[in-house]
Amino acid sequence: MNLFNPESSFAPENNLLKYRSQHLFRFDAEVQREGWFLGLSARYQSKLQNIDLAWLTFERSGLIPSWGLESWLTDHPRQPWVFDARAGVNVSDHHKMSVVVSNLTNAEYSVRPLAIEAPRLVNVVYTYEIH
Fold it and tell me: Which stretches within the chain are classed as H helix?
C-alpha cells in the first residue's frame, strides 16, 4: 500500500509526506540560583517541502482573490530561528513569579500554509506549588 500520491503533491520529487518538516531542532537552558532563575529556549523547524497541490491550484484558478500562498512560499525559502526567554524569582517555597517572552525577536513564520504563528507575547506568570 502506497500512502504517497504524487499527483496531489506540490513537490513530489522527494517522496516526502505532506505537511511534515524534515528537520526540527530544539534547545532549552536554564540557570537557577537561590531565589531566581533565567532561561532561554530556541527552536528551528525546516520549511514544509510538500503540501497539497490543491491549495495552489485553487489560488491560481482566479476564482478567489489571491491569498498569497505562492508568493509566501517564494519569499520565505526557509524558516527563522524562534527564541523564547524567561526570568523569575522564587518568592517563597510555594510562590514563584516569572516573566516569559515567547518569540523574543518577533519573527514572522508559518509552520503550516496560510497559518502565521503568534507574534511576540509577554506573559507574567504566578505559580503556586502545592507540596
Answer: 53-61, 69-75
